[in-house]
């Protein structure tokens, strides 16, 4: 994709792990594009987990109810 558009991107996704009955949140990141050193975004940013993945995981924990692994609805 990055080659056709010239863009670079990072996608964060996550939710309850389907294979876990306790509703454990799983987060993943997909990257396209590299810097001049050949690194994807997560490798170029030494604080990627601390600054990106951890806050997103905390957000997901507020989206999903741990006891039912379904969308939380007020």
Short description:
The protein has helices at residues 2-5, 41-44, 48-63; strands at 9-16, 25-32, 64-65, 70-71. By secondary structure, it is of the alpha+beta class.
Description:
The chain has one domain (2-71). It is 32% helix and 27% strand. The chain has helices at 2-5, 41-44, 48-63, and strands at residues 9-16, 25-32, 64-65, 70-71. The strands form two sheets. The chain has a two-stranded antiparallel sheet. The longest helix is centred in the C-terminal third of the chain and has 16 residues, at 48-63. It is elongated, with a radius of gyration of 15 Å. It starts with a helix and ends with a strand.
Tell me the series of helices and strands, N- to C-terminal. HEEHHEE
Percent of residues in β-strands: 25-35%
> Strand tally, please?
4
What's the shape?
elongated
Helix fraction?
25-40%
Largest sheet: 2 strands, antiparallel
Poorly predicted runs of 5 or more residues:
none
Helix/strand-derived category reads alpha+beta
Q: Order of strands side by side in the largest beta sheet? A: 1-2
Distance between the termini: 38 Å
Quickly count the helices: 3
